[in-house]
Design a protein that fits this description.
The complex is a heterodimer of chains A (about 375) and B (about 525). Chain A is an alpha/beta fold and about 375 residues long. Chain A is built from 13 helices and 16 strands. In chain A, the strands form 3 sheets. Chain A has a 9-stranded mixed sheet with strand order 10-9-8-11-13-15-16-14-12, with helices on both faces. Chain A has a 5-stranded parallel sheet with strand order 3-2-1-4-5, sandwiched between helices. Chain A has a two-stranded antiparallel sheet with strand order 6-7. The longest helix of chain A is centred in the middle third of the chain and has 15 residues. The chains are: A alpha/beta (about 375), B alpha/beta (about 525). Strand 16 of chain A pairs parallel with strand 3 of chain B, so a sheet runs across the interface.
Chain lengths: ~375, ~525
């Protein structure tokens, strides 16, 4: 069925809404996730009731003040329409679903329709799996924001709670000069997780609206944008680079700024290797890194991945225990935007390389470069 | 038939003036004058063309574009603006934590306005200004006694300039020992006042910042990981901006000294420790006070303030010139200090503020200074108890412990439960005739509020302030729209933060405004 979204009205903003109706289903009954029909069936057998709609309502309520100025575009029934109507919106609905049996394919199709309709913001409710599905379907073409409703919320694309998702969306839609940040989409392989093997992948980055920190006040000047901060970190790093060394660049936007300053490409979600003069390897595997280390003295550069503050073992598994042993603990360099450390709320940075003995040796206090000639001493635990 | 007189509500019914007052340049009318100066041919004949005697580079080609207004309109303009304002002299100003908004006795302003000070010129011969030199000399002696340091300079025009002065002396000290190039790192803590990191950075140092330990105290283990042969100095505020006193401060100093670094004590706000602890006994090499915080001189809406930098004898040779000296007979200015870092400000400092601080200390005496600290700490802990009874607020870090002179609170719970943010509490507080701000850098404590009651406020004042906060918190839970749409009775309404990110959208001078407006 073709989407039948109306022509864009010049005076109204367009908000897309996609709800993953089974998000969070597995959590309460201890299933560590809700990906796949079999797990969802199991969860229902265990008595799980989807709570996602209540969370969507809390977010939509915050948007009621601009109801008249908003075209809400959504999917049928449990994938958005029902929540929207319960909240008092009269949404435009696209596509068709099989109630009670929606799948990731429905999310893909819905995201594609939203992209075709060029919504101003795509609000989606779910967890890391939902974020990943949306990223896979349309990449970063639309500004997007997650209403946290899933079991796994490691991606940085989610607001801290449903209400703030609504507030942030409202602020963004009303704003004349909206600002964005690139936020990580990370997801755990649930099957591996269930058997105790936590293996997170970094899938990409969505553009999410950025709210000036509300602790902001008039006495301090505007903090530099994240891009400017990343450039400052990169400037510091590049200054310290030495000839004859190999630099293994982990994933992440802060590290991408280093490559940009060097005028080199960077695999955003992969590991690259550079010298101060040239690109050596793009999107290198563990095997490739080990080969390079036969010929080069090397340093590893990493930045915290995901909301939990993992330095190693999440999204950069190519930098394996063998690679780390070869490089040497003293040659691991950490860079980060200061907001990323502050968002940990005092919790330590984490390492989980898969080698508990190595992890132990990586713990303690490390120096994190947070700007040009600015460092923070921060604790690492395994 | 008369109505019964209703009793007043619990909270003050405040309503601020709102005048829609234009910028003074917009009020200008060509030809309007405040004073018409009579033309006196006699005088002109006597002195000739005074402008012609000025060097060409000092002569204006076109007259300054000053507003042209009558006296009445100038007076009315500023009276209106003053009615649209809040401040220590008008409201319970405990909401601007870290700034030590205490009462500045008006008698001290009278002293400053007296012709004995107001008519002095900084280029007068020192034999003719013995009185003010004596005040400056004696003020230095007081600050030495208060801090335990050996010498002070009173030149800095602000707290940050005082820190910058200290950083400059630190650099001179290491340079003297041939270590300036090697020692290029300055360590500070995240809850030290941000000017410490900013001044050292501006002076060219690399900055290492320590985060709090699990209990919310400055992390000694992190310090041990930070010090090295590159350490130039530790710049640390204590108590920190959270109001928490560092119980291991001597150990911090010892570790930095062992590494060959110097220690500088940010005592800009010494209001909780006057007469209680001293920088000297904690082992510090340098310290500084903001006279406009602890010593009751006005903040001057961002300046000029007055900073005082203190050092041990070892660092005294590096003090800025001139120092004020006394030979037993007369006071004089000493420029003959070959190792000095030089001048940090024209002339001798913000002298009116030095006189105010001197008068304030003289009026209190040593016992009085200690009493200031005791009352400030008592007031703060009393207010903390009242505030923590309010729903939705907490005092993160060092949970359950007392604070010194201020507390950085968090409304995180209230925000989660009601959607009302700390910033909005500030808008609503204005409806009750009082000032409230969130907090300055660092942005770590969610939904912060920093209250610092100082010694100036009575129990009734603190009760009123706490009652306002309690009322607003209650509104957040019962009728949040009232807060989301606040202020209702105040002058200033909501600010669009995005505007500040676009330099084309704002201007800090009239000239810049005209230029940017013309570009649009």
């Amino acid at each position: 069925m073709q989407p039948y979204f109306p022509e864009r009205s010049s005076s109204k903003k367009r908000l897309g809404l996609i709800v993953n109706p089974v998000a969070g289903l597995g959590g309460r009954v201890g299933l560590k996730g809700s990906d796949g029909a079999e797990i969802q069936r199991k969860a229902r057998l265990l008595g799980a009731v989807p709570e996602v709609e209540e969370r969507v309502l809390r977010a939509l309520e915050a948007l009621l003040p601009m109801k008249g100025d908003l075209d809400l575009l959504t999917c049928p029934g449990e994938m958005g329409e029902r929540a929207a109507r319960r909240c008092g919106f009269e949404p435009f609905v696209t596509g068709s679903i099989t109630p009670g049996a929606t799948t990731a394919a429905d999310t893909h199709r819905a995201a594609q329709s939203m992209a075709d309709a060029q919504v101003d913001l795509l609000l989606f409710a779910g967890g890391d799996g939902t974020a990943r599905d949306i990223y896979a379907a349309i990449g970063a073409v639309l500004p997007a924001l997650g209403i946290p409703a899933g079991v796994k919320i490691h991606s940085a694309v989610f607001a801290i709670n449903p209400r703030s998702a609504g507030e942030l969306a409202l602020e963004y839609l009303k704003s004349r000069a909206p600002r964005f940040r690139e936020a990580e989409v990370v997801d755990l392989d649930e099957d591996a997780y269930r058997v105790g093997d936590g293996s997170t992948c970094l899938y990409g980055y969505l553009r999410v609206p950025f709210r000036r920190n509300l602790v902001q006040n008039q006495k301090v000047p505007t903090p530099g944008s994240e891009a400017v901060q990343a450039q400052a970190v990169a400037a510091d790093f590049v200054e310290s680079m030495q000839k004859g060394w190999l630099y293994i660049l982990g994933p992440g936007t802060t590290i991408r700024a280093i490559a940009q300053l060097l005028g080199m490409p960077k695999t955003l979600v992969g590991v690259d290797a550079v010298s101060c003069e040239e690109m050596i390897a793009l999107d290198a595997s563990e095997h490739q890194l080990l080969e390079l280390l036969e010929h080069w003295p090397a340093k590893i550069v990493v930045t915290p991945i995901g909301g939990q503050g993992f330095l190693l073992g999440r999204g950069n598994q190519q930098i394996s225990p063998r690679v780390i042993h070869k490089v040497g603990k003293g040659n691991i360099l950490v860079v980060s935007l200061i907001q990323k450390l502050n968002a940990l709320r005092g919790r330590p940075l984490l390492v989980d390389t898969g080698d508990p003995v190595l992890d132990k040796t990586l713990t303690g206090y490390i120096s994190v470069t947070t700007g040009h000639h600015e460092k923070v001493i921060y604790q690492v635990r395994s | 038939m008369s109505q019964p007189i209703r009793s007043k509500p619990a909270l003050r019914r405040f309503h601020q003036a709102r005048w829609d007052e234009p910028v003074i340049f917009e009020l200008s009318q060509p030809g309007q004058r405040g004073i018409l100066i009579p033309e006196e041919a006699g005088i002109e004949n006597e002195v000739g063309d005074v402008v012609a005697s000025l060097p060409a580079y000092l002569q204006r080609k076109a007259p300054a574009r000053l507003p042209e207004m009558s006296q009445l309109h100038v007076l009315r303009h500023y009276d209106r603006l003053s009615q649209e304002n809040l401040g220590v002299d008008l409201n319970i100003d405990v909401g601007q934590g870290t700034c030590t908004m205490k009462y500045s006795p008006k008698v001290n302003d009278q002293l400053v306005r007296s012709s004995k000070l107001a008519d002095l010129h900084p280029l007068q011969d020192e034999t003719t200004v013995q009185g003010i030199l004596k005040v400056m000399y004696r003020l230095e002696q007081f600050l030495k006694e208060i801090s335990g340091m050996d010498r002070f300079t009173l030149q800095a025009g602000s707290g940050s300039v005082a820190i910058y002065t200290n950083v400059s002396m630190i650099r001179a000290y290491h340079a003297r020992r041939g270590e300036a190039g090697n020692r290029d790192e300055v360590i500070t803590t995240i809850f030290s006042h941000p000017s410490n990191a900013a001044c050292a950075k501006t002076a060219g140092y690399k900055i290492i910042t320590l985060y709090p330990d699990e209990d919310g105290y400055p992390d000694l283990e992190a310090l041990k990981a930070a010090v090295s042969e590159r350490t130039a100095a530790l710049l640390i505020t204590n108590p920190e901006d959270t109001g928490i006193f560092n119980p291991k401060i001597e150990e911090f100093v010892r570790i930095v000294h062992l590494a060959g670094g110097l220690c500088s004590y940010d005592q800009a706000n010494a209001n909780g420790i006057l007469g209680v602890t001293r920088a000297r006994e904690a082992g510090f090499d340098l310290c500084h006070f903001n006279l406009h915080k602890t010593f009751s001189t006005p903040h001057g809406c961002g300046g000029p303030g007055a900073g005082a930098s203190g050092v041990t004898n070892e660092l005294a040779p590096f003090l800025p010139v001139p120092t004020v000296e006394y030979d037993g007979v007369r006071y004089y200015l000493d420029y003959n200090r070959p190792q000095s870092i030089g001048k940090i400000r024209p002339f001798y400092g913000v002298v009116p503020n030095l006189l105010r601080a001197y008068a304030w200390i003289m009026s209190l005496g040593a016992d009085g200074l200690r009493e200031v600290a005791e009352i400030a700490v008592l007031n703060n802990n009393y207010l903390m108890k009242k505030v923590l009874e309010i729903r939705g607020v907490s005092a993160p870090y060092a949970q359950g412990k007392h604070r010194i002179e201020q507390v950085r609170y968090s409304w995180e719970k209230l925000t989660e439960e009601t959607g009302v943010h700390s910033e909005e509490i500030g808008y609503r507080a204005a409806d009750f005739g009082t000032h409230y701000w969130t907090s300055h850098h660092p942005y770590i404590v969610p939904e912060p509020m920093t209250l610092e009651p100082t010694e100036s406020y009575s129990k009734a004042d603190l009760d009123e302030y706490a009652a306002i906060l309690a009322h607003i918190a209650d509104e957040a839970y019962t009728q949040p729209e009232t807060i989301h749409t606040a202020p209702h009775n105040s002058t200033v309404h909501r600010i669009e933060h995005e505007t500040f990110d676009d330099p084309q959208a704002w201007a800090v001078t009239w000239r810049a405004y005209l230029r940017k407006a013309a570009q649009k």
